[in-house]
Amino acid sequence: MTHTAPPGDAIAAVTHPNPYPWYAALRSGPAVVRDERLRLWIASRADVVRDLLTNDALRVRPVAEPVPAAIAGTPAGEVFGQLVRMNEGDTHATHKPVLQRALAGLDLASAHEAAMHIAARMSHAPLSGLCLAYPVRAVAHLLGFADEELAHLSDWMREFVACLSPLSTPAQLDAASSAAAALMERFERLADARPAPRGSLLAAVQAEASEPRSRTLRANLVGLLSQTCEATAGLLGNSLAALAREPDLRRRLASRWELLPALVEEVARHDPSVQNTRRFVARSTFVDGTLLAPGDAVLLVLAAANRDPALNPAPATFELMRTHRQTLGFGYGPHACPGQALAFTIAAAGLRALLSAGLRTEALLARGWDYQPSVNARIPRFH
Ligand code: HEM
User: What is residue 255's predicted lDDT score, i.e. its pLDDT?
Assistant: First the structure.
C-alpha cells in the first residue's frame, strides 16, 4: 500500500489526494492559527469562518492593492478591478443585486436541458478539457451567445482566469490581458445586438440594471464566466472522482438520473472545488482573543468548515440523501455566491450527458488523477 504524506500546509492541502484528516486536525486547534511561512492566518471551523465572512473589519482585497500589481493598468486589471467579487462599497452594492436577481430568475429546467445538449456535443476526450470548457460554454449559451462563439469564449476564459492566480507566469498574465480585451469586445457586440437575445441571461441582467450598457456591468458579465470556470469544472470533476472511488455510489446511481442533483450537492460539501478564500484585515479585530492587525491576510478554509461536525453530523461520510446539508463552499454573507443553483444544474447536466454517453467512471480510478496546480481550487486532471 502506498502511503501519502500529509499536506505541509493549507495551500498544499488544496491539491493533496486526501487533505481531510489534516483539515480535521487543523479544526481541532485554535480558532485562527498563524502560518508564518505562508504569512497567513488560517481559519477552519464553521463558526469562525462564518464570523470572519461577516466581519466588516475584513475586505476582499488588500486596502493598498485593489488590483494585483502584476495586472494593474492592463485590460485584465480593468476587468478584475470592477468585479463584485473583488469590491466592497458602491460597485458591490450596485451590481451584486443585479446579478443575483437575474440568476434567481433563470428557468433551471430549461438551463439543464440546454447544458446537457452542449456537453453531449463536445468531445469527451480529454475528460479534464471537457470539465474546464463545458461549464463556461453552458453559461455563455445562457447569456445569449451563438453556438459558434462558445469554443472561443471558453478558450479566452481559461486564459483570463490565469490573472486570478498568484501561480501565473508573466506570459500567462499577458495572455490573460489579451483574453480580457477579447471578452470585453465580444460582450459589447452581444449587448449591441438589440434587443438582447430573448429569454437570455443577458436580457435578464440588462432588465435589472440601471445602466445596462456600462463597462462595469460588462466586466461583471465577463465575471459570471470567470466565476463559473474553475469552480464548476472542479465540481463536475470531483463528482466524477466520487463515482470513480465509490462502487456503491455507482450502483445506486446507475441510470437513476433523478439522484444526480443530490450527488453534486453532497460532493460540493464533502470534496468542494473552492477549498478556501481570503480576506484582508483593514481594521484591527479580535478572533477568539487573537488580534488580527491591519495588513494581515486570513485564509478561510471552506473545505474544512464543511466537515465541521457542528455544521454537518458525521461529516466525513458521503451521504447522498443527507438531510439539512450545509455548505460553506459557496461562501457566506455579503459575498456569497449567487450562482450556486446554476452551478448544481450545470454539473448535474454535464454528469448526465457523460454517463449516458457511456463514460465508465471505474476506468478513471484505474488510470488515476492528480489535481491542477492551484492555491484555492481543487480540479482533478484525469490521466
Ligand atoms: C461549483 C461552482 C461554484 C462554486 C464552488 C462557487 C463558489 C463561490 C464562492 C466561494 C464565492 C465567494 C467568494 C468569497 O466570498 O470570497 C463565490 C462568489 C461568486 N460567484 Fe460563485 N461559485 C460557483 C459557480 C458560480 C456560477 C455558475 C456563477 C454565475 C454564473 C457564480 C457567480 C459568482 C459571483 C458573481 C460571485 C461574487 C459574489 C460577490 O462577491 O458578492 N459562481 N462563488
Answer: 78
Query: Residue 168: what residue type?
Result: S
Could you say which of 1.10.630.10, 2.40.50.140, 3.40.710.10, 1.20.210.10 is the CATH number of the domain covering 12-378? 1.10.630.10
Nearest CA to ligand 1 atom 6: 330
Alpha carbons 179 and 163: distance in angstroms, whole number: 10
Residue count (the chain): 383
The distance from CA 283 to its chain's CA centroid, rounded to whole angstroms, is 28
Q: Is the pTM of this model over 0.90?
A: yes
Nearest atom in ligand 1 to 272's CA: 5
Compute and round to an integer the Cα radius of gyration of the chain.
20
What percentage of residues in the chain have a pLDDT greater than 70? 99
What's the one-letter identity of residue 366? Answer: A
Instruction: Please state the domain extents for the chain.
Output: 12-378
- Nearest-CA residue for atom 41 of ligand 1: 335
Of 225-229, 250-254, 306-310, minimum mean pLDDT range: 250-254
Helix-helix angle 260-270:340-356, to 10 degrees: 120
Average pLDDT of the chain is 95
Q: Grid coordinates in use for 330? A: 459557496
CB 279 within 8 A of CB 49: no
Which cell is 88 given?
466592497
Residue nearest to atom 32 of ligand 1 (CA): 339
pLDDT at position 19 over 70:
yes
Ligand 1 centroid to residue 336 C-alpha, Å: 7
Q: Which residues, judged by CB distance below 6 Å to any ligand atom, belong to the binding site of ligand 1?
A: 84-85, 96, 99, 139, 223-224, 227-228, 231-232, 235, 273-274, 277, 329-331, 335, 337-339, 342-343
What is the residue with the minimal CA distance to atom 8 of ligand 1?
A: 330
The one-character DSSP state at 5 is P
